[in-house]
Automatic annotation (TrEMBL):
SUPFAM superfamilies: FKBP-like. Pfam families: GreA_GreB. Residues 1-24 are annotated as: Disordered. The lineage of its organism: Bacteria, Pseudomonadati, Pseudomonadota, Alphaproteobacteria, Sphingomonadales. Gene3D superfamilies: Transcription elongation factor, GreA/GreB, C-terminal domain (3.10.50.30). It comes from Sphingomonas olei. The keyword Kinase applies. This is Nucleoside-diphosphate kinase. InterPro entries: GreA/GreB_C_sf (IPR036953), Tscrpt_elong_fac_GreA/B_C (IPR001437), Tscrpt_elong_fac_GreA/B_fam (IPR023459). Keywords: Kinase, Transferase. One of its GO terms (molecular function) is kinase activity. Residues 1-18 have a biased composition (Basic and acidic residues).
Length: 152
């Protein structure tokens, strides 16, 4: 029989599924971020029990990611009252528009909800600043004016 007509399984024709990429650097988390990781693991574990084989394989892949994130999580200390740091809520002006963000870990980040990862350029520009300070961002020395800083 010709090899062209031999088909062992559908698996050999599927695209390979690589592991989910882990963000580089330390896995800093807030208490809320650690709780979200635990919740995600619990939800995936529950879903896996009733899933078909294909979905169960996808869930196992996601669980490897989240279990790695749980094991490598480093609970960040409470931020100082007067300096922008991981876990700070910061109110500032950028391009004349007032904004407020919380600086969080990579997995907790949700820019639409005002949660920005500590590794994001905006957060890196703000970290170390204090209220009433002007900081550089995006090539401008006076791009951001920090209005208020407090722990979240």
């Amino acid at each position: 029989m010709s090899v062209a007509f031999r088909r062992e399984s559908d698996e050999e024709h599927r695209e390979p599924r690589f592991e989910l990429p882990l963000p580089s650097g330390p896995n800093l988390v807030t208490e809320r971020g650690l709780a979200l990781i635990e919740e995600r693991i619990a939800a995936l574990t529950e879903e896996q029990s009733g899933a078909d084989e294909m979905r169960a394989t996808e869930i196992a892949r996601e669980l490897r990611y989240w279990n790695t994130r749980r094991v490598t999580a480093v609970l960040a200390p409470r931020p100082p009252e007067d300096e922008v740091a991981f876990g700070s809520r910061v109110r500032f002006t950028l391009n004349g528009k007032e904004q407020e963000i919380v600086i969080v870990g990579d997995d907790e980040a949700d820019p639409a909800a005002g949660k920005v990862a500590f590794s994001a350029p905006l957060a890196r520009a703000l970290i170390g600043g204090a209220a009433d300070e002007v900081v550089a961002f995006n090539g401008r020395e006076d791009a951001i004016t920090i209005l208020d800083v407090r722990p979240d």
